[in-house]
Queue: 4 jobs
Job 1
Amino acid sequence: MALNIHPEAHIAFKRAKKQILFQWLTLALALAVLGIALGTNLYLDYNRTAIGEQDRLTTQARIVAQNMELQLTTANRVLEDLLNDLSIRQGSYDTQAEAQALQAISNAMQGIHSMGVMSREGLLLTSSRPENIGSNFSHRDYFQATKRQPTSRALHVSAPYQDSFIPYAITITRAILGPGGEFQGLVYATLDSNYFQSLMASVRYAPDMWDAAIHGDGLIFLSVPERDGLIGANLAQTRSFFTIHKNGGKSTSIFTGKVFNDDATQIIALHTVQPASLSMDKPLTVAMGRTQAAVFSVWKTAALAYSGLYVFIALVTLLGLYAYQRRQREFDQKEALANTALRLSEENHRLIVENTVDLVVKLKVDGSHTYANPAFLKLYGVREEELEGKQYWNAVLPEDRHLADDYFEQMRQPPYNATCNLRSNTVEGIRYLHWAGQALLDDNDKVNGFICIGRDVTQQIQHLNKLEEQAQKDQLTGLANRRHFMHMAGIEFARSQRYKHSLSLLALDIDHFKTINDTYGHQAGDLVLQKFSDVFHDVLREVDIIGRIGGEEFAVLLPETDLESASKVAQRLLNAIAENHVTLSNSAVINYTASVGVAALSEQSDSLSVLLNCADTALYQAKNLGRNRAEVADAQVAEAATAD
């Protein structure tokens, strides 16, 4: 007897089968998307962790390297002063007095262990350690190296060597040359390894972190914490990270691999200490590292948690779909499953809102809070019950209240959304928050509340402000740079022309500035420029526009000032400059003067460039007439500037 199946039942069966297949395919796709999302997030978090750790190691290595550079530069300057003192005295000096002076200098400099002067035979003539005076140190490698290559500018950096006071000492030397450039001895400074070891210990921020100092030839002479057999190890091997870094030619390098002959993979940052201002024959290198396992321990825990969560979600969804398909014919069970899915959905949304780093608040129509997520409560340092009845503008700075009012007014009108940046008082200080808001509408399309999401953009805004300030200011003097000065001066020039107001311009130039640089060095020249710039703030008004136009060239725009008043201002500046001076670290005093050209707005000054040319022409007259004076642009000068 044949079994007859109703065609409609057969169609329903096929439709149900297709629906079941579609549900399984959809679930598989969803799990795949979730797995990709979790994997991507873990991958990005892994990279962020690696990059963040590399940046921290690089920063700490750079801090130690900069301190070493400062100590080397300071020590080199002291050696230069000592060489200059020897050339003046020409060998006739009091050994005991010189030893006391060197002892005082050595005690004052944290990074220096000892200093002294040796003859060409290697005899210690004077030293900060008087007990060694008269001893012969010609056997030392640093003495032989300096003797083999005696040059006036070279700073010789010795290989680490055993010393009675320091486990591994490094000595820097400068050659004493005779009239014909022959070797006459040397001056030296021995670095204090205890000071640098304390410095290196101070930058360690994790128990597994280590740092080391390496000589240019590859010998490790400092290590924090100390490891057995590490001090004195030679890294100048073909495939060592030190050799790769050295041959790479970069100041900073990052590596990942195994060091110290153990199985722990390390993240290592190397930074070369060889400032351009010093002619060091051998560089030093700072190395810092952490074990990769310690760096990624938190990430591994999170990865295991994510993996377990993914497996759990996959099992739950697979079993849930299986159960749902078994019971989908029963209406009550379908409804129960639907309600469960709805509750899960609401819970997921709640988890997202409560765990996001963004701020999420819900407000009534009058602006009072009805909900705030944990990120909001943490940033403002309040409990949820404390927000009840409080208005959104309570934490907004008074200067930004009008922006907040405009923001909510926009959300009350189609398309019922808006964005804005507001400054708020938080437990972390004043923060810039970017808010995006959406109005909530009832069944009659009337606004009955708001949902607002905020993100802290303080760092981005501060970075933009810093970039803008750097683009406008001269980095050495803090005055407006040429571009910004011309912009501000152009605005004031146009205003003075429009309203027929008086306007004057001063062009200033430091006299014999090249001689100052050649005599005392560019660092001294920079100090002169900074002290010279300070005079402007002491003499001029706040409304006056000051700018550094070139190397030692400056300009001052004086609004509401005629030619006679501008001449008086120029003379006050000259008097203040004449009373000013710069005292160097070696007690040398630099006195300097300036020349000033004065020009005022006139009918011939149809542009700011013409006014600048007038002032420049008057400035050159002041220089030609002997410098340290101010000259006023007369009619002939103005006419010549206009023609130019």
Note: The mean pLDDT is 85.
Job 2
Amino acid sequence: MNKVKIRHSFVFKLSLYIVICLVITFLSVLVYNYYECKRIIVEGMKKNVEILATSTIREVGSFFNVAQQITEDISLTLENSKITEKELLGLLKDVVRNNYEIHGCTISFEPYSFDKTKYYFSPYFYRSTKGVAEFIDLGDEQYNYFKRSWYTTPKQTNKGVWSEPYLDEGSVDLLMVTRSEPFYRTINGKREFCGVIACDVHLNWLDKFVSDIKILDTGYVFILSSKGAYIEHKNKAYIRSRESIFSLAERRQDVKLKELGKKMSDSQAGFERYYSYTLDKECFVFYAPLKETGWSLGVVIPEDELFFDLNTVTLKLFIIGLVGYILTMTIIIVLSTKMSMPLRTLAGATHEIGEGDFSASLPAVFSTDEIGMLSHSFRSMQKNLVNYMSNLQETTAAKEKIDRELSIAHDIQQSLLPYKFPNLKQIDLYATIIPAKEVGGDLYDFFFIDEKHLCFAIGDVSGKGVPAALFMAVTKTLLRAKISLSMDPSKILNVMNEYLCRENEPCMFVTFFLGILNIETGFLEYCNAGHPPPLVHTANKGFYYFNTDDAHPPLGIMADVSYVGNRLKLLPEDIFFIYTDGVTEAMNIDYVQFSEEKLLDLLVQNKNETVVNIVNNVKSAVDRHVSGAVQSDDIAILIFKYNG
């Protein structure tokens, strides 16, 4: 019992509801703040990375612009003027010596294009470890520059191109890239291809440049070639092994990485989530093209580092909120317990009252708030309840006394009815009565006036209960008292009616059917005082409603009425069935009556049954029709079969 009280106490529920509302509100604010701040951080980071990428692209582009500009200028010079071999070599030497970005430079001619005696002519100056321009001639059969991609590609495309990065000969991890520019001359009025100017650029400066870019703690920048090969990356193994983003995606079975590589190779720009296998965690990546070379720049930002401060602040806010909830819960419980203590004491006292101890003492509450009003109301209720229980005991005792008296009255009334049915070969007779209350106003009676005359009667007093029962007893007593006056039912009813009309202030009345049967001859003398017509069964007609050809009112209404009787001849096997209207007017819960038609059909179906079975079957049919509805009227049935 105590556990139930604690679990469902007012203090517990109040505290729980308040804290739940606070928790929901706080968590909603916390979640909204977290994701809104996250969105703002991502948007701000995107802008910063775009600025960084733009600056990086500009710096890298300016470096490669030198080589591109040099090749374009030399191409223009060679196309518009004649130049000697000495001037050509001096030009190449000055290019390498004066431009630190250039590792080497060559002007490679088509066969016999520069000198009619030279099939190969490809002078090349390069920067040595001493920082001076060294010379070699690339024109020989072993090197055969005519088949090199740096030569064939611009020749076929008729435009300047950058080569794919490649490892410098003599170095295992130093990348180099070549800018190739075709040049032409007008010969016999026709512009013809004469050779290629090529500048080699070492990418060691690019590694240092990219390494100096700091992206949070572990973020990094990477560069892809136009074919997706890694030119620069935090993981140097990718560069040494000539790894590409597509080969990495294939090895890792990473579809998203492959799609990213395709976008970057197509010179697209964008921002999306990215899993870095180098850092082994989720990241964001911003990518943009290097238009001068056809390469693509990628900036990788670790997600956990980007949101580290936000996650830290959110965790601290959550801890602060949790501590606040605990303090709030404690304060609410303490205050609620103190405020609700009178209620708990009052609840205990009312529990004792509910158990039957109406003298249980209620706690003294002197406050004028709702609790004080409640305590005052409980005191008034306790006083009223004591008075009510006292009155209830008296009323119950009185009701029990009335019930006992009604039970006795019921027994007395039932004792007034004949319950021993005649055991004669001339007649089978049976009757029953079912009062709607403990006592009722329906009656039946039968007795022998002499050895061969059977007197029987059935009646229905207006109303129910004790008054009807008393009126029924008077009617039955009158019948027994006046039957000795005559053998004519009409004369007997006239006398009974005159007596019942005297001092009948309640204006009660009784429908009454009286019959006297000669069991030897079968002649039935009868008189009907407003009672429902009986049903008669004969051999030639079966069951039918017997018209008594009278319009007499019930007994007890008018004293000056003259009742007239009639006569009926019964033959052997004829059945006489008479009842009160409680049978045909019995109603179900839908207020539908049993009806005279249904009674007639039922008797037709039971014509071959005994008189006892006929009565029992009628009672069962009425019960089924009523189907749980309260009995609305008394029921009485009397039946006999004349055997002759």
Note: Confidence is low (pLDDT under 50) at residues 1-6.
Job 3
Amino acid sequence: MDSNATAERRIGYDLPYAIEMSHITKRFPGIIANDDITLQLRKGEIHALLGENGAGKSTLMSVLFGLYQPEEGKIFKDGKEVTINNPNDANDLGIGMVHQHFKLVEVFSVLDNIILGTEPTTMGFVKEKAARKRVIELSNNYGLNVNPDALVEDITVGMQQRTEILKMLYRHNDILIFDEPTAVLTPQEITELIQIIKGLAREGKSILFISHKLNEIMEVADRCTVLRKGKYVGTVNIADTTKEELSNMMVGRDVKFVVDKEESRPADVVFEVNHLTVKSKIHKKNAVNDVSFKVRRGEIVCIAGIDGNGQSEMVHAITGLEKAEAGSSIILDGVDVTKKSVRYKNTHGMSHIPEDRHKHGLVLDYTLEQNTVLQRYFEKEFQKCGFIRFSKVRDYSEVLIEKYDIRSGMGPLTVVKNMSGGNQQKIIIGREMDRDHDLLVAVQPTRGLDVGAIEFIHENIVALRDAGKAVLLVSLELDEVMNLSDRILVMFEGEIVGELDPKKTNPQELGLYMSGAKRDTNHGEGGDR
């Protein structure tokens, strides 16, 4: 961390805390989400809140923002006790929040979203010109660079997040809460966001940064408070601790940051893509252009690349969510499945951990147990004479809950939309890895998971490989790409531009391929070397 930046911010050690949450307790049916937690945020400080999935981080911040009311405890701002009954009260006190899942109206413009609820008016008419001028000034001053006239549905996730930040700045918030702000961002967007957060702190803002990514916390935070299973573990100065110590505080044991795996022993080809082409929905160029590769039993092949270079469209075509162009062929276990349905692929050897867990992975209004059998409810194990055997579904969901440490207030009966993002991800991972399959297509499988869960998932993916399964991994995390892969295929502008051996390359060389600065078109179609 940049110690000079910390000194420049003149953190208020001798002043009343900007925010003090004292002995907060929040209960839900079947669970104590926050159990007597005290959190103290200094003025001008970046304070990280760290914990496992379901540790109570988001709940605590939702209490501060007025979304929940605590059963016990008090909140102080600048040394004075305050009552926060709703987000409007929070905004009046200068408290703003960027939620893990953004609160934006997609059909509205960026400008409309920023001023929504606080529109400047004269005689009942919105003074849009004045609002637009102020939004542009804030955007330029903080280096956010958003287009106020763009529709939210047309901009990237990173730009949507910047819109959320501008919403806080427009409302003159001086307490800024970032709830898992990097969970859906690319590495490049994460770097940009960290610089923005540091800049906000230099302006005198006090920031609460919720995360379970230790590298980011070590880089951006001044202090860190750790929660575990709803309880307060401790608060440490980042300058006086290590990543290993923080992970131990978070999960209660030492965590391995390097994947232990033996040399792969690839066998016969399980999956083959030949001349795959997919049209783009947003421009005239193909999103995927003449891509070919193979995946064999007993190996993990990783598709690496900067987000937006065709990985999503490629996976959608492979799994049946999107149509491939004529001339493409997708072969699974020797059968051409190019035009087969999603269900056919699910029942004939393909499992899929999707990139967007809400859109393609879960039915949010269904219970946890219902989501575990979305692709299997029609099997004999779970139905008889056309009727679902609910006791069998319950038993199966409880097995996955135990095996994958899925945490929720009401167990199998918990409605999925009420669960933390990390535990939602665990439902999908457990369901897909447990199904009988020959190929696992895993897209950002550890997105939103804590270090303990990441370690567990990586071990299970390696175990699948060692059991003779084929794994196609798509990841934006360079550490995951380097640690988990047996072969790396790099995509740039819809094409595979190189095949790399993770033991013989490094992140710098990988970055050159990912940016298009280096290219090797003789990559052998993934396996024919």
Note: The radius of gyration is 24 Å.
Job 4
Amino acid sequence: MSTKNVIGTSPVRLDAREKVTGKAIFPGDLSMPGMLHMKILFAWRPHARVLRIDTTEARAVPGVVAIFTAQDVPVNEYGLQVKDQPVLCGPGSSIEGGDVVRFVGDQVAAIVAESEQAAAKARDLIRVEYEDLPAVFDPEQAMQADAPLVHPERGMSNICVHYKIRKGDVEAGFKQADVIVEGEYRLPFQEHAYLQPEAGLAYIDEEGRVTIKVAGQWTHVDREQVAHALGLPEEQVRVVYPAIGGAFGGREDMSVQIVLGLAAWKLRRPVKIIWTRQESIIGHGKRHPAVIRVRWGATKEGKLVAAEMNFIGDAGAYMYTTNKVLGNSTIVCTGPYFIPNVKTDVYGVYTNNVPGAAFRGFGAPQSAFAAESQMNKLAEKLNLDPVEIRLRNALRDGDTLSVGTPAPGPVSIVQVIEAAARQAGWKETPQGWQAPPVEQPSEPHLKRGWGFAAGFKNVGFSFGYQENSWARVELHGKSEIERVVAYHAGAEVGQGTHTVMAQMVAEAVGVPFEKVTMVVSDTANMGNPGSASASRMTYMAGNALRGAGLAALEKWHAEERPAIAEYTYLAPKTTPFEKETGYSTPNFCYAYAAQAVEVEVDTETGEVRLLRVIAADDVGQAINPKLAEGQIEGAVVQAQGYAIQENFVTQNGRVLSDQLSTYLIPTILDIPGEIKSVILEVPDPNGPWGARGLGELPYIPLAPAVTGGIHAATGTWVDEIPLIPERVLRSLGKIT
């Protein structure tokens, strides 16, 4: 039986036909006989105690079946990292502080009726008496001793995360520096803006399980959180993912899952919900805003000697994944460079804003913006090319990260920097690397320049968690393998992961791609896959499926028919931060990226356009090159939105940009003129067929590359994004 060499090819996606023809079933498309409809009453206020909920008028609406409030939830708490959020906020809650709303998207009641219209009418007739509480919206103010407490039940401080790095002697390092650059960088909220808002259907299945069909990123953790809140054993809850209309980290945390499960469990009838876009925007977490203050020093030869960083991230009302996101920010805040002396303090702070949540890049884009901006400013001060200074400091195998241990090898940041630079037209000269000349437009108000930035990102879960992923493979046939069935619960959130899984199974057992059938995303008959996050799914699922495939193949050769094997892959171990120094081996794999961006600035209007983006990414092994290109292009466009257009506006905790008419994301007319994907393949020794993760990586360097390009074009540094026209014009001195 010969391998078919499926790895490295680009077969048509398994879900392509159904998605382009409209036949794919997304959560909002689901229906069942006898189905009820749910609406949610949101708080719409940032901080208040719920004193009384009067549902009298609402219950009188024809068609209303039930109204659930806090007293109906058996264990009224949930949270991915810390169970600090009530399912429903109000009197009668089973947890301390469960009667308090802490941001505008907190849920107060769930209304179930025979029609959406009846549920909506009843929702609007619920009368809630609130006692407004002192609120805090600025994380720096929230750190002060006299600030209002968001979670007094959790202690006497709003600081929920504090990580430290203490490597070497930072003050001695600065004494060695010939040049010191200080900066303050401000990063915004970002809305995930996935195409399908939160939606789902819950019912009791044929085995009596509370079954929830919904879009998420980790079936088994969704199940755990629903079971916990309902006070049920996990085996009595089932989570199934249909087609998912995008995620980007925004579906890691709960939205409609628990209240749907509650209603189906209590009423024994199917219940469906679809949020409006406005509800989606206020109801799920956002990329963490941050203020980052930095001081970096280098010698006149361009060698980094010291870096000091203070990072304050807005956690919003609940923990969500702030502790993990900012852990990643801590690792990345000195960039993919060797710096012998580092002092870093990273804070996550509770406020009464929308919670900070996982979002593509997971804390790396914020830190990379500061680190790469510092590199570009040091290059200017030292009269060095931005590529040259990076190559003089780029990590090599054996160099220690800021956490005091070497990055797992091979470290390929040098290769990706050189690849991006060459593709963009940089030349290697005896004096060092030199940027390509820029042809300026004839219109004097248009200015062009090249920007450059690099970045790196962990693959897989970190900080001592034992990374794992389960799979099962079945080989069917008589004298030869006629059909392969692979089971894996990993989420397909649009990235093509199920297609890549099928390719890896086919390669492992030596059959054509077409012989593989994937059975996916159902807790009823599958083990834990881990999350579709942390750029981990190809790496972890690939190792699990390969292990199961090889074990099944061994049984096949022993004449078992069908040959069935399960396998759980355990990744290399990691360690948490040492509390006072940050010393750790936090990750088992990193991936590396670099980007060159040609920027055009209209100095009359403040508009910033991306003419060309050269994105070099080390993927270890491109399992499916076309899908890899799609991930790179999608990440670049999403990062462009973050850098330039997406202006999430809040006022005293209230979201003003709560529609896609006021929160503008890139359209086909906004995207770069050219995105050139440069895929490098430096195999990871533990990755399946050498693969590393890719999903988040190309996002990370773009924003600082853009601001570097603006500086090259205009001589002006812009240290806050998004680069909306007013901000650009202000930095150019055109408006005050």
Note: The radius of gyration is 26 Å.
